[in-house]
Write a structure and sequence with these properties.
The protein is an all-alpha fold and about 290 residues long. The protein contains 13 helices and no strands.
Length: about 290
């Protein structure tokens, strides 16, 4: 028991040093679950733009253009969110992030293949060839990119950290997907397969490291979930106010009045609570009349 408490205290201390207070873990997870339609549309628009710029940069052999495209790529969100969901045991977050990752892969590869069909030249340069064979160095880059993504997630107020982390993760993932689309567009199976293997290696490394990192700083199943739905608390309030009203009357035949129901119900569920309470009063009075006779 003391060992567990010591480990959790160490995790809380580490989280605080990284900029995430222990009490705000639930807020971090909740922020990943909350996505507005505007944010969703912006994500897919940014991803499409980044894929187009990255493919053209690869074809031109321009490293600067590729890095510029990664400044726009938003892939860090769903991938780090997947690692967070696995560490915290959030099924909803895992499914949502995994679905977005799969959709992003399909979009980037499709854009890469489509643009390759349009452009008039299909020469394999150094930038394209470098992303067809996975190496241990590529794996190491992915590991450090995952660490940067975890740090940026814990400190969302730091725009510099978020931009740098997103760029590093984008460089590890978007160019290989574009090269895979390039291989499909040119019917070069070895290029498409090699780039896809590099992407899968980097993706697995980022998810694995981010999951371990979040678990190491205290994100665990049952330890960092946002509060339950409001509906449950409302139903509980209705049931509790009815029970309190019934218990307050010394005799069942004197059921609670409407004023008593209204005063015993919380403001967040006053209408439903008062109706439930009044129904209980009528029922109790109906049962008491045969007894009185």
């Amino acid at each position: 028991m003391k060992t567990v408490e010591a480990v959790r205290a160490l995790q809380d201390r580490l989280a605080s040093l990284l900029g995430c207070e222990p009490k705000s873990r639930a807020d971090v997870i909740a922020s990943m679950l909350q996505r507005t339609p505007r944010e969703i549309f912006g994500y897919w628009l940014q991803l499409s733009i980044a894929a187009g710029i990255a493919l053209l940069g690869l074809v031109l052999g321009s490293t600067a253009v590729i890095i510029g495209a990664m400044l726009v790529a938003p892939l860090m969100g769903p991938i780090v969110g997947l690692g967070m969901g696995l560490a915290a045991g959030s099924t909803v977050l895992v499914l949502r992030a995994a679905g977005r990752v799969l959709g992003s892969v399909a979009v980037v590869v499709a854009i890469g293949a489509g643009l390759t069909k349009v452009i008039p030249f299909h020469e394999i340069n150094a930038e394209i060839a470098a992303r067809t064979t996975p190496t241990a160095l590529d794996l190491g880059i992915a590991v450090f990119c995952a660490m940067a993504g975890v740090f940026a997630t814990l400190r969302p107020s730091s725009d510099v950290a978020s931009t740098a982390a997103g760029t590093s993760i984008g460089i590890s993932l978007v160019p290989p997907l574009c090269v895979s689309g390039y291989g499909l567009g040119t019917s070069a199976a070895p290029i498409a397969v090699g780039a896809a293997l590099l992407f899968l290696t980097n993706l697995a490394a980022i998810i694995f490291v981010s999951t371990l990192s979040f678990a190491a700083i205290g994100f665990r199943a049952g330890g960092g979930h946002p509060p339950g739905p409001r509906r449950d608390s409302t139903e509980g309030a209705v049931g509790s106010c009815t029970a309190r009203s019934r218990a307050a009357s010394p005799r069942a035949s004197d059921g609670p009045s409407a004023a008593g129901c209204a005063s015993s119900c919380p403001s967040s569920s006053s209408v439903r609570c008062t109706a439930r309470c009044a129904a209980g009063s009528i029922e109790s009075r109906g049962r008491s009349r045969p007894e009185a006779r």
